[in-house]
Structures are given as structure tokens and as C-alpha cells.
Amino acid sequence: MDFDEKEWMTIDQGMSRLPQAMAYLVGYNNITFGARVTAIEVTSSNKIGITALSYNGSVNPLFDRIILAIPLAALGMIADCPRWSVNKEVAIRSMHFEALYKMGMRFKTRFWERVKPKASEGGQSTTDLPIRWIVFPSNGIGEDGPGVLLVYACSLVVVYAPRTSSLAIRCIATMYEDQWDGDKKIDVYDLLIETSDAVWSASTATGDATFLPGQFRARFDVARQREGDIYFAGEHISYHHT
Q: Residue 63: phi, psi to the nearest 5?
């Protein structure tokens, strides 16, 4: 996906097809989906042992090398793990992860593209309302039929889904109060079809990795350094992280 391109490009039928395609290449017998790692150990023969809980029970594979691409917040929750250098342990424990919340809201029409004079064709808007950010779809602009808005919030104490859904639609209604889509007054309550949300703060990895003041210089390179044959990767230790 590149916003400089004239045509929108994405993976047909969803992003889950990417790991499925990779699994096909390496062989389904060589990959385990949906397993939670509970232990990492270095054996006496310098192999890396992993213990993970899968749908079919515990699995205990051995590897010559491994790449840990899970967030450091999740890595810190693995109790049985090698003891690394003090600086590495501090980097793992101190990286800040903000609560992250997203909700997709599907409407009968793409009314936001026809509001005059401030139509929204892709991009995002920031508001001081509780929902904070609204992301407008950059694909299908100008098409008839339903469309989806994305409500995006971080550092927000997320309440249970029904209340959050009602809060989100109320905020959208406030933003489009007394506005018109052609000759029809916009009623977002009537236009709403369904909502679907994800609360990353409900899991151990929470949400968005953020370096606090002074942490990038002190923690970034240390967090990236390998420990023997254990390597570390991921968006949270990338120069281009969010």
C-alpha cells in the first residue's frame, strides 16, 4: 500500500492470506498458528527450545536460531526465559506500550464524501471528542453503497464494547450534526449498519510501542541486539515504528 499510487492495492480477501501463503511455501508441518509461547530455553547442546500451547496441546520444538518478533510487553510476560544482560532486561521491562483501541463502523452510505463544503476523501480527522481520531477510507472513493469509518484511539481507558459503540456513534453524530448529504439530512443513527472493535489493551502486548523521553537513545539499540542465537525484530524496534 502506497498513497502515492494512483490505484488502491491491498490483499484480496484479507491480510490473513499473507501468513497462509508463507505457510504454504514452508509447509504446514513446519509452522504452528495460534500458539502461545510460555517458555524459551537454551539447551546444553546450544539449541533453542520453545514451549508453546497450541490447539492440540503443548509443542516443544528445537531450533538452531530463533527470531522473537513479538512485542517486548509480551516477551516480558514469558516467565521461563533466559536471563539476559541487565541492559537488555531493562529495555524489555521499560518500553512503554499505550492502550490502543480501534472500531470499524459500517454505514449504508459514504455520506462523509458528499458533505459540502468539507467532504472527506481519505485521510483522517482529529477531534477533541472522546473518539480522538476518525480514519476515512482511501479506497472506493465516489462509489455508491456502504462504507466504513475507523475510530482510532490510544491512551484511552476503554470501557466495555456496548458503551464504547454508543459513545462512538454519538461522537460521529455530533461531528455531522445539521449537515446534509445532497438533499438528505445526515442521520448517522439510521445509517449505521454494524460495528466491530478490537481492544489491544485487553492483551499482554497492549497496543502502540512508544519511547518515552530519553528512552530511545538508551534502550533502542540494546533492545535490538541479539542474545546468542536469539534475535529480536518487530515494529516496536524499527526506526520507522509508529
A: -135, 155
Q: Which helix (H) or strand (E) holds 123?
A: strand 123-126
- Find out whether 72 and 236 touch, Cβ atoms under 8 Å: yes
For the chain, which domains are there?
32-95+211-237 (3.50.50.60), 98-202 (3.90.660.10)
Residues 182-237: tens digit of each pLDDT: 888 999 999 999 998 887 777 666 667 778 888 888 888 898 999 999 999 988 88
Q: In the sheet where 133-136 sits, what is the strand order?
A: 123-126, 133-136, 147-154, 100-107, 192-199
Upstream peptide bond of 117 is cis (omega within 30 degrees of 0): yes
Q: Assign 4 a pLDDT band (cuts: 50, 70, 90).
A: low
pLDDT tens digit sequence for 132-161: 889 999 888 888 899 999 988 776 545 444
Residue 224 grid cell: 535490538
